[in-house]
Design brief:
Blueprint lengths: L1 H17 L3 H17 L12 E6 L6 E6 L5 E6 L10 E6 L11 E2 L7 E6 L5 E6 L20 E2 L5 E6 L4 E4 L7 E6 L5 E6 L6 E6 L6 E2 L7 E6 L5 E6 L5 H12 L2 E2 L5 E6 L6 E2 L7 E6 L5 E6 L10 E6 L6 E2 L7 E6 L5 E6 L10 E7 L4
Antiparallel strand pairs: 1-26, 2-3, 3-4, 4-5, 6-7, 7-9, 8-17, 9-10, 11-12, 12-13, 13-14, 15-16, 16-18, 18-19, 20-21, 21-22, 22-23, 24-25, 25-26
Length: 374
């Protein structure tokens, strides 16, 4: 459910706000023409100085949360692309050195039952951790209800975290508590997993050993904490969080949570030490700031935000120092860019985008060379 569920809700917000996808088609076409005439690197906007050689990896459906293997040669991601025989988010992996996904379907890891989310490689790159609802029901769970004036996404209490091999065989179940357990990512040290859980009564961050043992809660404030990643040295964690401030906001948050729902439209970026200590808020931008990931230096964070756009339906990537200074815009898409991740060597950036989708609502994966200096 992690960032992809938030994306689904925010994209729905985008489409509802516009009332007609033709608005996006026109803007996207104009900016695509601008890119094509400005540079041979036609999938990159001219202002995107940190990106070079942008390459499209997928070509249909909604593809998101693509994360590199430890050796940087493979990616694992989720997709609902009907041409691949799925009608609900499922987990796939792809070797970046072999073939292409326009002509060949990548290997599906999940069992095509229920809904899946939040996949990540384990050390050694032969196992993948992800969350799934399939044990509770083999059918795809229902979408969130439409609530007047509110954009919500579901916190399915049937999510649990599993480990599977590259052939799709589930080798272990890591969580067994009632309620939502998902959003697992792995420390570069290879010893810990951070995840979001409802087991304490609120959506908090937890850290457990790589084998699922010794789970410990590391956040404790009311509000949704999720989408967490470790820093390159494993010493810190970055995540997104909602923080209801007023009595009315807290009441609304709790009422929605009791229905298994969360509003993803007001979030900020936070960092803490890997044990939860030294918690600090990084962004104070308003609106939806999410999908954070550490820069290879460990001193900056790249994330997605709509804070600069009054209507709220345009998301781009930004980078910021850990102390909240030095905000820099990275991408300049007309609709949606999110889910950034650096390769382990820091030379590549993978992300999801609506660019080059021919005016459809497809969200595809893109990979680019990262240029550190403008």
């Amino acid at each position: 459910m992690k960032t992809y569920a938030v994306f689904s809700a925010l994209l729905a917000m985008c489409l509802c706000s516009c009332g007609d996808s033709r608005h996006h088609t026109q803007n996207t076409t104009q900016q695509q023409e601008s890119r094509s005439t400005a540079s041979h690197d036609s999938l990159r906007y001219p202002q995107e100085h940190h990106l070079r050689n942008v390459r499209q990896l997928t070509f249909g459906g909604n593809n998101a949360e693509a994360y590199f293997s430890f050796d940087g040669q493979k990616i694992v991601f989720q997709s609902d692309y009907a041409a691949w025989g799925v009608n609900c988010d499922q987990i796939f992996y792809f070797d970046l050195q072999q073939g292409n996904m326009k002509e060949h379907m990548p290997r599906r890891i999940s069992n095509n039952l229920g809904r899946t989310t939040c996949s990540y490689f384990l050390p050694g790159d032969s196992l993948i951790v992800f969350a799934s609802t399939f044990k509770a029901d083999s059918a795809c769970p229902p979408p969130p209800p439409r609530l007047k004036g509110k954009y919500v996404w579901p916190v399915y209490d049937s999510y649990d975290i599993y480990v599977a091999d590259l052939q799709g065989n589930i080798v272990k179940k890591l969580t067994n508590t009632p309620g939502y357990d998902a959003e697992a990512t792995v420390s570069p040290r290879g010893d810990k997993i951070v995840f979001t859980s409802m087991r304490s009564g609120d959506l908090e961050l937890w850290v457990m050993n790589i084998d699922g043992s010794n789970p410990k809660q590391i956040t404790h404030e009311p509000g949704y904490d999720g989408g967490a990643f470790f820093s390159p040295d494993g010493s810190k964690i970055v995540f997104r969080a909602s923080r209801p401030k007023t009595e009315a906001e807290m009441k609304e948050y709790k009422e929605l949570l009791a229905q298994g729902l969360v509003q993803p439209t007001e979030m900020e970026i936070f960092v803490c030490d890997a044990d939860g200590s030294n918690l600090q808020q990084v962004t104070h931008l308003g609106k939806a700031n999410w999908a954070p990931f550490f820069h290879p230096s460990g001193k900056k964070i790249i994330f997605s935000s709509n804070h600069a756009y009054p209507q709220g339906f345009r998301f781009n990537l930004y980078m910021i120092n850990l102390d909240g200074s030095g905000l820099e815009q990275i991408t300049y898409d007309s609709v949606f860019d999110a889910f950034p991740m650096f390769s382990p060597d820091g030379k590549k950036l993978i992300f999801s985008s609506n660019r080059n989708n021919q005016g459809t609502r497809d969200t595809n994966l893109f990979i680019a060379d990262w240029v550190e200096n403008n």
